[in-house]
Every structure is written in C-alpha cells, then in structure tokens.
Amino acid sequence: MPVFFECQRCTACCRWPGQVRLADEEIARLAAFKGLSEFEFIQQFTRVRPDRRGLALMDQPDGACIFLAGEGCAVQPVKPQQCRDFPNLWNFPGFEKVCHAIPREVDDVEYARRIARIRLTGSAKA
Length: 126
Ligand code: SF4
Ligand code: SF4
Description:
By secondary structure, the chain is an alpha+beta fold. The chain has one domain. 30% of the residues lie in helices and 16% in strands. The chain has helices at residues 24-34, 38-45, 81-85, 108-121; strands at residues 3-6, 21-22, 46-48, 55-57, 68-69, 72-73, 102-105. It has a 3-stranded antiparallel β-sheet with strand order 2-4-3. A two-stranded antiparallel ribbon has the order 1-7. A hairpin with a 6-residue loop joins β3 (46-48) and β4. α1 (24-34) crosses α2. Mean pLDDT is 93; it is low at 122-126. One iron/sulfur cluster binds at residues 7-13, 86-87, 99-101, 125-126.
C-alpha cells in the first residue's frame, strides 16, 4: 500500500537553507493575496535564484523563509507548489530525520485523494 506522509506543521522545512522557487502564476497569486502588484511583490519578497533562471522567495535574516510567521505560514492558502509538494511529491534521502511528517499506509484511492488535496490547497503541509 502507498505511504502518505502527514505533515505535523513543525515548520522545519520553512527554516532549512535553500530556496523556494516561484513560477509566474504563483507570483501572481501571492501578490494578489498580499494586495500588491506583481512588481511590488517581486521587489519586496523575492530574489533572483542562484542559477539566475528565475525568482525565489527571500529569506529572513536567520535563513527562514520570509513568510514564516511564528509557527505558521503567512501565505498558507496560496503557498508555492514546492512547499505543498514536500515531502510526498519530492523529498531527499534522510528527510525523515528532519521532517516530522508521520508515515501512514493508505489504500490507493485514499492516497490519490490526499495527493489531489495537496495539489489543490496545500493543506497537508505547514
Ligand atoms: S511559503 Fe510558507 S510553507 Fe513555504 S517555506 Fe515559506 S513559510 Fe514555509
Ligand atoms: S513537511 Fe515535515 S518539516 Fe515541513 S512542516 Fe510538515 S512535518 Fe514539518
């Protein structure tokens, strides 16, 4: 049976070093959510990715994501797909050591339902 990792909203993945890549449509969604034009949003909250092939969210001085607010995500309803997809649709060797998501065996139908929910709302991750 497939294993689905249930996010515990520990926010560890919002504090890791690295980058949250942004697609154009995600920038538009985030800007609208913040009540900003896309240009204003880009100026205030993004930086050029190290490979210079697009934009990523800025970090806070301690390296956390710019949208980590207390123990949650300040843009939860519109957070980027990269955030929504971890750890079920992408992860890395040993991620279980630093991510507190709980693995649950579910049947194929339930797995598909949960993946669809991630795709739609991001509700399975902080
Ligand atoms: S956008 Fe939200 S979920 Fe994604 S890394 Fe930033 S705080 Fe975490
Ligand atoms: S995906 Fe993992 S590391 Fe990120 S908030 Fe959920 S439990 Fe924590």
